Every structure is written in C-alpha cells, then in structure tokens.
Amino acid sequence: MDNEEVSVAVVGATGYAGAELIRLLLAHPRARIAMVCGQSKAGVPIAEALPSLRGVMSGEVEQFDAGAVRDRADAAFCALPHGASAPIVGALRDRGVVVFDLSADFRLGDRPTYEQWYGDHGAPERFGTAAYGLVELHRDELRDADLVAVPGCYPTSAALALAPLLKARLVEPSGLVVDSKSGASGMGRSPSPTGHLPEAAEGVRAYKVAQHRHTPELEQELSAVAGQPVRLTFVPHLVPMTRGILVTAYGTRRPGVTAAQCTEAAERLFEGSPSVTVLPPGTNPDTLWVRGSNRAHVGYWVDERADRVIAMCAIDNLVKGASGQAVQCFNVRFGFDEGLGLRAPAQWP
Amino acid sequence: MDNEEVSVAVVGATGYAGAELIRLLLAHPRARIAMVCGQSKAGVPIAEALPSLRGVMSGEVEQFDAGAVRDRADAAFCALPHGASAPIVGALRDRGVVVFDLSADFRLGDRPTYEQWYGDHGAPERFGTAAYGLVELHRDELRDADLVAVPGCYPTSAALALAPLLKARLVEPSGLVVDSKSGASGMGRSPSPTGHLPEAAEGVRAYKVAQHRHTPELEQELSAVAGQPVRLTFVPHLVPMTRGILVTAYGTRRPGVTAAQCTEAAERLFEGSPSVTVLPPGTNPDTLWVRGSNRAHVGYWVDERADRVIAMCAIDNLVKGASGQAVQCFNVRFGFDEGLGLRAPAQWP
Amino acid sequence: MDNEEVSVAVVGATGYAGAELIRLLLAHPRARIAMVCGQSKAGVPIAEALPSLRGVMSGEVEQFDAGAVRDRADAAFCALPHGASAPIVGALRDRGVVVFDLSADFRLGDRPTYEQWYGDHGAPERFGTAAYGLVELHRDELRDADLVAVPGCYPTSAALALAPLLKARLVEPSGLVVDSKSGASGMGRSPSPTGHLPEAAEGVRAYKVAQHRHTPELEQELSAVAGQPVRLTFVPHLVPMTRGILVTAYGTRRPGVTAAQCTEAAERLFEGSPSVTVLPPGTNPDTLWVRGSNRAHVGYWVDERADRVIAMCAIDNLVKGASGQAVQCFNVRFGFDEGLGLRAPAQWP
Amino acid sequence: MDNEEVSVAVVGATGYAGAELIRLLLAHPRARIAMVCGQSKAGVPIAEALPSLRGVMSGEVEQFDAGAVRDRADAAFCALPHGASAPIVGALRDRGVVVFDLSADFRLGDRPTYEQWYGDHGAPERFGTAAYGLVELHRDELRDADLVAVPGCYPTSAALALAPLLKARLVEPSGLVVDSKSGASGMGRSPSPTGHLPEAAEGVRAYKVAQHRHTPELEQELSAVAGQPVRLTFVPHLVPMTRGILVTAYGTRRPGVTAAQCTEAAERLFEGSPSVTVLPPGTNPDTLWVRGSNRAHVGYWVDERADRVIAMCAIDNLVKGASGQAVQCFNVRFGFDEGLGLRAPAQWP
User: Fold this and answer.
1) Weakly modelled stretches of chain D, pLDDT under 70
2) In this complex, do D248 and C235 lie within 8 Å of one another by their Cβ atoms?
3) What is the residue range of B118's domain?
4) Up-side HSE of residue D107: CA atoms within 13 Å toward CB?
C-alpha cells in the first residue's frame, strides 16, 4: 500500500474555513498538516485559537512566511479574505508551492469584470492563471493545476443546480433567478450586528440584493456551460442557522421539459461523482442532510402551470462550499481518489 | 368617550393562531372575549391549554356550540383547520354571528378552482359570500361584510409586495416568481418530524414546490389588481425560526422602471395604512423587525443588469399573516379605527 | 376618567433595554415619551436606530442633556452601562428628575461591598440613596422614591424564587446554589464572539463562575429577607436563545418541608401581585411562557431523597428582568395601578 | 498491517443514536457494518430512513432477527428504547453475539433499585451480567465483557465531572447537586410538543426534577468511586439546541481545596485518555467545542466565598453520551486502540 503523504500548510487557519480545513485534513489519510498560519493569532496555541482542537492538536499558530511554507510543505491552502489573499498566493507560487486559494481573487477570468466588481487586483501578473476549482465542471484542468481558485458557497451550490439544465438545454439561458439562503457562518468569524444572536435568530433577510460579488463568477461558469452569455438575478439571504446553503433557482423551461428529464441530466453530469447526489423528483434538498459533509444534494421540479423549472441544491457552505471543495481539488491535483477523506456522511441531526 | 364593546368568541382557540387572537384581543380596547372554544381541550382551564395565559386569564376552554356563541357574542373568530371550518362558519352565519374565518375555506371566489385544489366544499351554500380580508386591497368591501375570509401568511405577504407593482404596471404580469421563507409556527401546533427541533434547526428546505394550495388565492388577488390573469410560480420554504415570513418576489420590469418608482407606487397604495411600512430602496425587510406586530415591511430593488424587479415583504405569520389581520378586519367591519389595538411595535430583539 | 400623563425620558434608548422601555411605554396609558436619548446614535431617526419602530415612532435620538430632560420630562429611565450611569443619574437628580436607573450603580447599600466588586463609584454623594426596585420585596419604599435602582435579570429571578423560602424559613440560609440560564440578549447589543450566532447556537457554557457582580446584590436582598447573612454560589450560563432567564436554585430543606408548603409560602408573599404567578408543584417554569411579558413564573419541588428544595423561576430578562420592572416601579412611584400597561401575556409561541 | 475487521450489526438503527452509530462505524477502520436493523422502517432503503446517508450507503433496513445477526456479525450495537432492549439483548447473548447495549436495561447492578425506578426487568436472567461502559472508570472490566451497558449522556457527563473529586476526596460525598442542560436530540426522534420548534426555541425548562431515572445510575457509579454511598440531587433541563450536554455540578469542598487540585485530580484520572480533555481553571467547557466528537471537556472552579467546588463537563450527548462511547467500548473489548475512529475533533462552528 502506497503511504506517500503530501505535506500541507493552512494559511488563515483560525477563521471558520481554516478550522474546517484542519478538521478535514486531520481525517485525510494522505495529507499531513505541516504548518498552521494565522496573522492575528500568531504565537497562540492552536488549541486555544480553535477550541475544538483541544486535546486533538498541539503546536502554535505561526506567522505566515512564504519561505517557511515552501521548506515544509508541498501545497498550501489559503483561507484569507478577498484582496488579502492575492499577494500571499503570489509569494507562494513564486516559490513553487501548489496553492488552493479559497478567496475570490483568482476566480474570474475576465480582467475588466474583476475590476468592475472588486477594483484593482493584488497580484495582477497571476491573474487568469488559476483553474476554477469546481471539480464537477473542471475535473480535467485541475489535474495539473498549480493554482486553484476554489469557488465559494453561493456559486458552487447554484452552478451545481443549474449546470445540468443549461448543458442539456432544458431551460432558457436568459431570465434565471437564483434565490439563496445561507447560514450565518458564511459571514465569517468576525462578530457583527447581523450575526449577533439576538438579531440573527428569528430574522430572515436578503442582503446585497442583485449586487453580490459572486454574481459574475456564477455567470462565468454558467455561460461556459451554456455556450452563450448567461445573465441572471442573484439574491442572497441570511437565515438563522450556523451552516448550510440552500439555493432555489428558477428558469423558464424549454417546451415539454419534465422533472424526470432534469433529474436525468443531472445524473449524467454528476455520474461517478463522490460529492453530488441527485434526489428523485419530489424529494427536496435539505441543508440538514448535508451538514458537515462534502456532499451536494440537488433536486428538480417543474411547475407546469407556469412553465418553469425549479432547481434546488443544498450544501454545507464551509465544506462543499469552501474547505471540503478545496480538499477535493487537492485530491484531483495530487492524483488521489477524488473522494479520499471526504466520504463521511453529514452529522445528522 | 365611547366605550361600546363588541363581544367576541374565539373558536379553535388553543392553536397558535387562536393563542395570538386572544393575546391581541386582550389588548384591544373595544373587544371583550366572551367565549373561548376548542375541541380537544374543552373543559381544560385556558391557562393550562395556553400556558402564557397563566395569571392572565381565567375560565375554561369550552366546547363549540353555535347557539351559545350567538347568545354571548356579536362576532366570532374561527381559527380552525381548512375543511373543518366551513360547517362551523355556516352554523354561525345561520345564527347571524359576524364571522372572521382564518381558514382557507372561503377565500376563493371561483368554485372549480376551489375544487381543483381542495376538493368538495364543506358549506357550499355559503361559497362566494365572503369578503377577502386583506384590508389593504379590500377595505371598502369589508365595512359591511358579515363573513370575512382572512388570508393566510403566504398570500398576504406576497400580495402586499406585488400588488403595488401590478397596479402601477411596473412589472409584467407574467413570469412572476414568489420565493417565501417561513418560520415553523406556520405548521401549527401539532408536532411533526419536520418541526422537531433536532431536524428543524440547521435545516432549510422547500416544500410543496409549485403545488401549495395558497397559489390560486394569490393569483386571484393579483389578477384582480392587474386586471388580467396572473399565473405565477410559488415555492414556500421552511427556515429554522418560530415566527415570520419573508417573501422575495421576482418580476420582469417594464422598461426603465426604477426602485424609486416601485417604492412610490407602494407608498401610494398603502398611504394611511396603519399596518404597512414601505422601506426606502436599499433597506431590506427583516422578519425580526416585525415579529409580534401587525406590521408589514415592504421594500423594492431593481436589478438593472437583468431587467428584474425584486419585491420583498416581511410579516409575522401569526399576526399580519393571521390573527392580527383578522382583528384589523374586525376593526374595519365594526367601524373602529383600523389600527386599534394593533399599533404595538415588534418585540425586538 | 383621570387622564393625567407623566412625561418621561428614555436615556440610553438604543440598546435592548432601551428599546424594550420604548415598547412598553408606548403601550402605557399614562406615560408619554417626551425624549429619547442615546450617545452613539444621537441625530439618527429613532426608526433607523431601532428598526422595529419604523412606521411606529417618529423623531430623532437626541444627545443627553440633563437640563433638557428636566424641562421636558417628570421622570427618566436610564438604561446605561454600569459605571456610565452614575454621573448621569446624579445630574438628573440634581435637577429634581425622578430616576429609574437600570444599571447596577445604585443597587448595593454597602459601600465596601460595592468597591470590592465594582471599584470607585461614579456619584459617591448619591450612594445609598436609592430604593431597590424589586417591587415584590420593596413596594412600600418605592411609593416615594425619587431614585430607584432597578435590579437586573439574575437577582430578580433568583430573589423571586428564593425569598418565599427564606422568609418562611423553609430552607437553610446557608449552602444555597443558584444556577441561572440566560438568553443572549442579556449580553446587550454590542456584537461579541460569545454572541456571534455560529458560536452561540448549539453552545451552552457557564461564565464568570462564582464571580458574577450580581452575586452581592442577590445576597443583600436575601439576607434582608432571611434576617441573617446569606452567602451563596451563583453560576450564570449562556444558552442559545434571545430572551429569557431560568433560574434553578437549590437549598437544604428544613425538616419535613414539602413542595406544597413552598408553593403556599410563595402564594402568600406574592398575593395580589400583577407580575408573579406561582405554578403548582410538578409544573415547571418555562422561559417561553413569559417571553415578552412582565411576568415571573415560580415553581417548587422537593427532593425527598436528598432533603433539598428546588426553586425555579422564569422571566423575560428584558422585561421583568429590566425594562418591565422599571415600568412597574414607575407605576408604584406615581400611584398608578401596579400592573398598568404591563398585563399583556407572553408572546407565545 | 493488520487489516482484521469486526463485523457489526446496528439494531435500532433509525433513531438518532443509531444514525450516529452508523456515521461513526463508517469511519472506523476495523469495523464493518454487516446489518442494519430497525422495526418501523424495515424494508425501507437506509438512505431514505436516514437521509444523511443518501449517496453514502446502500441497502435496506432489515427486520431484527437474532439468528441472522449471529450469522453475519460478531458484535451488535443495540440502540433501542429502555425496556424494549432487554429481550433482544438476551436473544443475542444466547447466540453468543457480543452486545453493546445503549439502553438503561443493564446499567444498574442492584435489582431492587432497578425495580423501584423501572419496574420489572425484561431479561431477568441476564440482570447484573453487564460491564458498565464508562471506559474511563471501567476500562479493565470492559476488555473481556460480552455484554456492555453503555451509559447515557447524563450519567456520563456528571460522572466524568465528579469522579475525580470523589476519588481524590476533594469534595464531601453528601450534598452534591447536579444541574444538567441538554439539547433536544436527547429526547429522540419521535416528535413531541416539547421538541416542536416553536415551543422549544426560546424555551429553557427543567423536567423530571429530582425524579429522572438516570439518578440511581449516577449514584451507583459515584458511590463506587467514593467508597461510600452517594446520594445527590439531579435536575435535567432542556435547552434550545440539537446536540450537547453541559453539566454544572456543585459540591462542598474539603477544607482548603483549590481549583488547581481539582484540575490535577482530573488530569491524573484521565491520563492517557483519548476522549477526555481537562481544561485549565478559568476556561469553562462549552458544548459547541465538542459537538460531533467523542470528547468530553471537564473544568473546575472553586467558590472560596461559599466553600464550594463547581465541576463542569460538556459532551455531545449522541457521541460521548451514546454512540461514540459504545464504539469506545467496542475498541477496548476487541483490543483496538481505544481512540480508533474516534479522534475526529468537533465540527466547529
């Protein structure tokens, strides 16, 4: 049995995505965590910075240093805020480290679009050099990618729901509506009024209505699948729970299309995938069923009265929507079984 | 000062809508609760059946008796399950009692549509005799209505969001999508797997996708406002909280329409309303801001990239979506100030 | 009918206790809110600072000014942080304004004890001049008090549970254990890691174990009732909900004491109280049953196997544990019926 | 590398403990799930009965048959209701199957005590033949036990908190108070009013006050550790979350005892344990930090003012309080490393 291990660094380890990367990598039989980096908590024992690791992991959070990462690790997972990530990714790539970047910095392929939504780029010489880490749509490119832009929770869930329909031409590419409901962990670890329990519990609200920065990323991916420009309306919502995203996407059905056809199209596209389960028509995805797992549940329904296809997808925003997806990319890149270390079912209930 | 009181009975008092009726009627300066009826808990002290009333209200839950209601009350609020309500409403109307019915039994005006979605009607001779109790759209009819079909939470929230747009012809009447997110109290007081906390917390899921029985009711109301048949896609979702509904509705904008125009159209339609607040563009409704109140918050946004209007409305499903709305109808019917007893702000946080 | 109104100012209006004061005072038939003060949000429309007041209340949050308060109000409710309150209370008292202070600044009667737990006092000349605003124990003193120190949620709930037992000598005064479970709104409106929904949901934890500053206040009140010094162990816990405190207090029973005797002792002490309901033995208080109301539910059980009395009390920490209690004191001080404006049942569910 | 596998059956698989057994056993490198039994869902695909297993596990839930279990499995995990378990355990033991029983049926060693709290026993000939599966206290007995009575969440958490103190004689054995706070999954999968989200969220309440059936079990274990009879007061509470138990236990300290001594006593008792982490004084256990893991966090504080030791322990009730503990017993019984398959950290947040 081949016991080769890949040494990895986790950069930005003390946020939620970082904590989840560590949890998943500890369970991964071929990854070895060689370094845990974090800026605000550098020098703090890991088990204090992340109390779920008390008794599980020793060592300290270290200050990021690109050279030290190169010396000790083959690959780095970067879970840093948008904008802050690019220069660090650049420094790691300069030293030959394979990088899985969870920020938005390298996800877009079109420079003007990037600048319109995000402003100046932090490592312009690397712009456009990343593979987009939605494995189900980019498996082949990822096999030899040295920089992977791991997509976030909103584009992942919406693309998994809609890609089969656009690929199989079951819905019109125009007029799509994407209504997403996210748990509060998607906001990250920094306390804010929006996430303060007394104002978050019992509150459902939309935010960044039709203005969320993940919109162009989702359009980029769906346009590629559809073979023509896709422009859609995306409205994210916060719901009072910790983890999970449910997306309900609406498209105009092509004449006569049935829920069974949609389901079959998804089964074809995701055949063999260790991470996507297609539910039979009438069974609706539920975030609770995937919580803590790297699994996406997709399901379809047709509103015959209104000629509309309803595509749904539930994922755990921190796993298939972030850290699990990064590990899935890692598996593809390093030639491991795609589901290695990622097959655990959801923690239910 | 005129101290005339109207005696009322609450029928079906021990469910959530019933409990909320009692809470609101106790605070109403012109209503006097003369009788509290409930089938499964008849004979039980009210304060045991509804523990929030311990120390607040004495007396027992009584078995329903139409004659007793007529003898003791001028009006009855019926908070009974769909189907079970019609015969009781019929018996009360036979005896001249003014009825505010919170069930779906009398909301539809078209008999074939009713039968298609609900089957046989329980009091066919009364079909079509009710006024639809969405005060903001039917204020005048309600002034002399002896039977009021109080709409539920989904149609109320969606109609308040969309009626101004259709009335002012700011969106196309076809192609509407209504995505609703409801708290668990909308399921009622009977325990079920879906509402069991371990399976409800951390779970967001759609249900009755494009098949919910409130669809024809909403279409009826919007068609009347639009002056032409409206057919829409309605998808309700359960979110892990107790109270509140947020609806996010999507329509194709008529050319050049702005969020400001949508907002103004709503301000016009709801001018003087004690129950509807129109938020400025960019401020999104939040269920927490209306919890426990009879208030609806509506807000609008335009996605210029995709030529779409996004209309949002938040209400408390048990108040403006049920019992508060019934009391609002009562106020209009009995000539009281429309907001009497209903002006309390939300309990926040 | 006497329509005399008392004009009141709310100082520190934009926190949770302030918001709750406004909600309760708006419903109070004899109070008129003349001024709403807040430091960080001075100049902001009230309805923006407190979104539940959109459509309900106009006007702006004003900067505090003691002279302006005196000119426009007969009484002031101060909902300010501990320490910050004393000088403002002093300035108001200097101008003759009757003050209901929700901070801890004037609750203790013993200066060394105060300094041991809090340090220097902010208005030492006023120390010891306040009446303690737990109406059920200090009703008579409150009738002519010009400065009322309104107790907080922990001492209120624990004192209501234990006072009847100590007064009737049903438990030993030594060896008491007070285990309290509080919702997150008790932490106030400032976001913090402890209250951040992803780290607050699904988390129960003790804090300030046997060190909470409310300990001496509770001991002061219980010692007075017992007629001898009471020293107890107090451990507060945070539970994942917004409102409510449940206290479970444990005492050694005097020989032969029964739950019925404990219940009767409480019924005697709280006879005629509009705010305290004594539950029969075997019915346990539940925070949900009092949420949003100014009601305390107390209940007793005896563990005969271990010779222990278990005393429980549930309140809404923001109402009977803060703002409602302040209004109750206001009623007593200004000669209104004690329950005026405070009789609304809980919002259930 | 030794790849020997133990074939196991899970009986009562479709409840919460059963689901958790499957989740843990799927991740266990030496266990192979050979049979999944359940009565109400016999014949249903596993992935329908437990939706978190869609795409993860095929096969159907089978009707229990003792002979079939013996033919296909070396060991059985029984997650059945109290009372229902004993005859099934008896039938399995008759056929030589090693049984890990998660019910209370075999936990007590004293027959009259059993009958006093539970009534007649369902397999009296087996009474008293089980080892008590709290590994930290019974490791040696478990190595060759063929019937293991796995303790539940309340006794586990309380015994882990208190055993070190009693063993080291740091607290008096009399006068102990055990105040436990449990998430709703402890009630099991059957919907009930108590667990219905609208009545469970925002509600904290005690239940079975000083009458819970786990009391004698806890007293049995603590008496053994203390070397003298221990009688305590135990009050369980329900808090609005899915998973987790926090126990706060109060004991009278022996003269001069410090928090550091308590902590050291726990470190000694739990030295080398893969499942118990002792927190430093001042760091309080939090259920969120152990959720989904087989880990217990214990911590101690001394209230010097009141001469009391406060012992706290947080576990996940479904893991260290049920299924994880069973797997830990399985590891000891079959000679595997005690933490095998159980070292995953909590899912945080």
Assistant:
1) 1-3
2) yes
3) 6-129
4) 27
- Top residue of B113, B194, B205 to mutate, by most chain A CBs within 10 Å, is B205
Q: Specify the CATH number for the domain of residue B220.
A: 3.30.360.10
Tokens of D170: 């740091």
Residues B170 and B123 in one domain: no
Cα D71 from Cα D65, distance rounded (Å): 10
> Does A166 share its domain with A308?
yes
Contact of A152 with A322, CB cutoff 8 Å = yes
Q: Are residues B189 and B305 in the same domain?
A: yes
Q: How many residues does chain B have?
A: 349
- The letter for the amino acid at B96 is G
pLDDT per residue as tens digits for the range B325-342: 999 999 999 999 999 999
- For A215, the token pair is 């919109």
Q: Tell me how far apart the alpha carbons of residues D239 and D204 are, in angstroms, rounded to a whole number.
A: 5
- Identify the closest residue of chain A to D297 by CA–CA distance: A54
Q: Going by C-beta distance under 8 Å and a sequence separation of 6 or more, which residues neighbour residue D271?
A: none
| pLDDT tens digits, C6-57 | 999 999 999 999 999 999 999 999 999 999 999 999 999 999 999 999 999 9
C contact test, residue of B46, B52, B338 with most C CBs within 10 A: B52
End-to-end CA distance of chain B: 36
Q: Is the pTM higher than 0.90?
A: yes
If asked whether residues D163 and D58 sit together in one domain, one would say no
Residue A126: pLDDT above 90? yes
CA–centroid distance for B267 within its chain: 21
D304 Cβ neighbours under 8 A, 6+ residues apart? none
Distances (CA, A) of D153 to C74, D65, D183: 56, 28, 11
Contacts for A239 with CB less than 8 Å, ≥ 6 apart: A181, A182, A183, A204, B181, B204, B239, B240, B241
Minimal CA–CA distance to D300: which of D316, D286, D318, D283? D283
| Structure tokens belonging to residue D121 | 């026993």
Query: For chain D, give me the number of helices (H) and strands (E)?
Result: 11, 13
In angstroms, the CA A91 to CA A97 distance is 9
**Which positions in chain D have a beta carbon within 8 angstroms of at least one beta carbon in chain B?**
16, 183-185, 189, 191-193, 195-202, 240-243
Round to whole Å and give the CA distance between B202 and B204: 7
Cis preceding-peptide flag for B280 (omega within 30 of 0): no
3-class secondary-structure state, position A46? helix
Which has the closest alpha carbon to A299: A247, A343, A251, A238?
A247
| The two structure tokens encoding residue D226 | 């203390």
Query: What's the CA gap between A97 and A117, in Å, rounded?
Result: 28
User: Which tokens hold the place of C117?
Assistant: 């737990």
Is the CB of A191 less than 8 angstroms away from the CB of C191?
yes
Report the C-alpha gap between C171 and C225 in whole angstroms. 12
ipTM above threshold 0.85: yes
Phi, psi angle pair for B100, to nearest 5°: -110, 105
Nearest neighbour of A193 by CB, restricted to C16, C191, C202: C191
CA C126 to chain D, closest CA, distance in angstroms equals 29
Tell me how far apart the alpha carbons of residues B20 and C315 are, in angstroms, rounded to a whole number: 20
Band of the pLDDT at A4, cuts 50, 70, 90? confident
In the three-class reduction of DSSP (H, G, I as helix; E, B as strand; rest coil), residue D107 is classed as: coil
B313 is catalytic: no
Looking at the structure of chain D, the number of domains it has is: 2
Query: Which strand ranges, in their side-by-side order, compose the sheet holding B98-101?
Result: B31-37, B6-11, B75-78, B98-101, B147-149, B131-132
The confidence score (pLDDT) of residue A3 equals: 66
Residue D124 lies in a domain: yes
Q: What is the CATH number of the domain that holds B65?
A: 3.40.50.720
Distance CA(B347)–CA(B345), nearest Å, equals: 6
Residues D236/D154, Cβ–Cβ less than 8 Å: yes
